[in-house]
Amino acid sequence: MAVLPIVKFGNDVLRRPTEPISELDDALQKLIDDMVETMYAAPGVGLAANQVGVSRRLMMIDLSVGKRPGELYVCLNPEIVETEGELTEEEGCLSIPDFTEVVVRPQRARLRYMDRHGKVQEMWGDGLMARAMCHETDHLNGTLYVDRLRGLRRDRILKKISKLAKSGMWY
Ligand code: NI
C-alpha cells in the first residue's frame, strides 16, 4: 500500500464530475487500499478518488479514522437518495487544509452505493455521518464545501486561499 499525494483546491480534477465505476479489477482494489492508507495518514474521516487525482466515482468514510473495526465504508458509485432536516456545523476538507467553515447539511442522509465486492448497499447516516456522505458525494460531482457558503464567509475563505497561492504556500 502507498500514501498518495492529496490534490488541493485550485486543481481542475476536483472540479470535473467523476466517471462511474463498472469494473472491479485488481487495479481498483489497489487504489482503494492506497486511498484508505492515505485517508488514515492525513488524517481524515473521508476521501474521494478525485482528491488523489483519479477521476472515478469512488469515496470512503471512516469516522473513527481506523481506530474502530467495522467503521470503514468504501463506496463505489454513491448517490444520496434521501435527506431529512438540517444541521449547521463546522466542516473541513483535506484539499483545503488548515481551513474550516460552518456549512449547512442535512441532519440525516440515505446513501446508495456499491461496496468493494460489488454488492449494492443502502444506509442512513446521522449528524457527522450524513455530513461526510454529502461532502464526499459532492466531491465526486465536482463540488467543494466552499461552493455551499454564501456571501462574506465565501469571499473571505477564497481570498485567504488566493493570498496563500500568490505567496507560493498553497501548491
Ligand atoms: Ni473534502
Strand order within the widest sheet? 1-2-3-6-7
Name of the CATH architecture: Alpha-Beta Complex
Strand content bin: 25-35%
Number of helices: 3
CATH superfamily: Peptide deformylase
Radius of gyration: 16 Å
Which class of secondary structure composition applies to the elements? alpha+beta
> Low-confidence runs (pLDDT<50, min 5 residues)?
none
Distance between the termini: 25 Å
Largest sheet: 5 strands, antiparallel
The tally of domains stands at 1
CATH topology: Peptide Deformylase
The ordered H/E elements are HEEEEEEEHH
Coarse shape = globular
Mean pLDDT: 96
Into which percent range does the helicity of residues fall?
25-40%
The number of strands is: 7
Overview of this structure, please?
The protein is of the alpha+beta class. The strands form two sheets. Strands 1-2-3-6-7 form a five-stranded antiparallel β-sheet, sandwiched between helices. It has helices spanning 26-41, 128-140, 151-166, and strands at residues 46-48, 58-61, 73-84, 87-92, 100-105, 108-114, 120-126. The model has no long low-confidence stretch (mean pLDDT 96). The protein is 26% helix and 26% strand. The longest helix is centred in the N-terminal third of the chain and has 16 residues, at 26-41. The protein binds nickel (II) ion (NI). Nickel (II) ion (NI) binds next to α2.
